[in-house]
Design goal:
This protein is of the alpha/beta class. It has 6 helices and 7 strands. Helix 1 crosses helix 6. The longest helix has 20 residues. 39% of the residues are buried. About 4% of the residues have low confidence.
């Protein structure tokens, strides 16, 4: 799986002036996997999204799919208890992993969620990048650090999405990103994208990264 570490870094190294974009023609929830489900054997690249409960994961996925409520959002944290596979344009999958760190969930259930996430990270043949969402307003929690370590243990270098950008002043952005990177123990060259579900700031940057990763996938298949 070492290729996954390299692919994100290579995509990041593209010239800053290059503008890749995605046009969302179709998006649909295709597969829902519970704790005991067999993971699907997809043939298109998968991009997974992980984050603690109420970090804005469903809002990000909806924004990327240009849909209002395909990925369900809820006032009740911890509602996502399955791994949801969204088929986008028939070309790739967005994979919504269960929200972690929900204190009111029974410990046994939280442990099963953790094992389910780890099983996916370890077992997917088509996973090309993992996006780890962290609230830009706060230092990473202990659960954020555990998830970061899980992801890196599977030889992926996660892309950090710093959510809720509209909740802080623009002058605070660089400081908060630095705090998140240091709190996770991430390398200085880690790809970090601040994002706001409200203003959609950061969406184009994520689209550009996804486009370059998909282009790299097409190139590898043709060789």
């Amino acid at each position: 799986m070492m290729e996954n570490r390299k692919s994100v870094q290579a995509a990041r190294a593209e010239p800053a002036g290059r503008k890749d974009s995605m046009v969302i023609k179709s998006a649909a929830l295709e597969t829902v996997c519970g704790i005991t489900s067999v993971l699907p054997k997809n043939e298109k690249p998968e991009f997974a999204f992980a984050g603690k409960s109420n970090v804005g994961k469903s809002s990000l996925i909806n924004a990327l799919m240009n849909r209002k409520s395909l990925a369900r959002t809820s006032a009740q944290p911890g509602k996502t208890q399955t791994i949801n596979f969204y088929n986008v344009n028939g070309e790739l999958y967005f994979v919504d992993l269960p929200g972690y760190g929900y204190a009111k969930a029974p410990e046994e259930i939280r442990a099963k969620w953790g094992r389910m996430i780890e099983r996916y990270l370890h077992g997917s043949d088509m996973l090309r990048a993992v996006f780890l969402l962290v609230d830009i307003r706060h230092k990473p929690s202990g659960n954020d650090k555990i998830m970061y370590d899980w992801i890196t243990a599977q030889d992926y270098r996660p892309v950090i999405i710093a959510t809720k950008l509209d909740k802080i002043k623009r002058s605070q952005t660089a400081r908060q990103l630095k705090e998140i990177r240091e709190g996770l123990g991430a390398p200085a060259d880690t790809v970090m994208i601040p994002f706001s579900a409200k203003t959609k700031q950061g969406r184009d940057e994520i689209y550009a990264l996804l486009s370059r990763l998909c282009s790299a996938e097409d190139t590898q298949r043709s060789e």
